[in-house]
Amino acid sequence: PAAYISQLSRLRSSDLGRIDKECSHCHASHWIDERQETSSMRNPSWESCCKQGSVQLQLLPDPPEYLKDLLERTDTQDRHFKDNLRQCNAAFAFTSLGCDIVSPEDRANNNNNNNNNKRGGLNAFQIHSALCHRQGSLTPVEGNEPSYVQLYIFDPSYAAERRQARNSNLDPEIVRELSVMLAQCNQFARIYRYAHEILSNHESSNTVSNGNDQREVSAPYIIISPSMRMRLIEGSDRRTHNPPTMEEIAAVIPIEYSDRGFRDIVLTLRSNNSLR
């Protein structure tokens, strides 16, 4: 109507100016009005970024050469990688997602049963119950194709073939090169291969020592604690192993959690069940 005045017309814009000032210590960008009250416009200083140089964080290391090249290039292959980055992440995941996913049909039924919730809009990814990661054994069940962390135990060329078979729209060269890169550079892939080697050697030694003894024994398993220590568990046999080259691990969990079991990773050589 002619007399209608939008509430938006009463809003006043706020202009903070350009974010064109730089901390002389860490080179973080700032607005001039963020400076310390004791500093001047002519010689501003900031404390919210690095406490005037008292906080110094190490720079993140450069990614492996191939990944860095993919991220910095601007050709067709680079655009394909960036457009399918989420699918690439899923293809190289170590574990699967564990949760109850609400399907579009269930959401539609819920909306039909609730008159107050009949609204349009984009579909959302909804889950119920707890969110966790699921992981199977290090060796696939007989008759099943290897997946997730199991692929990191195999040769990178075979792992690339299996990933490509499940993600046929991805560039085969990218899948192949990333498979080789992660097998060589990823510290967690090395840990899982080391765990597989320990369990395989333990199984072989038990087979030789037992001979024709048909007694049933519990399957050994490995626990990786948050402090990145491996423990081989078989009945009363508890051996501790140091994972290889852990200097470059990506995340460190505080030591107060190291004695608790809820963050432990449990690995078995063969199992029909997935663990969470």
Automatic annotation (TrEMBL):
<protein>
    <recommendedName>
        <fullName>Helitron helicase-like domain-containing protein</fullName>
    </recommendedName>
</protein>
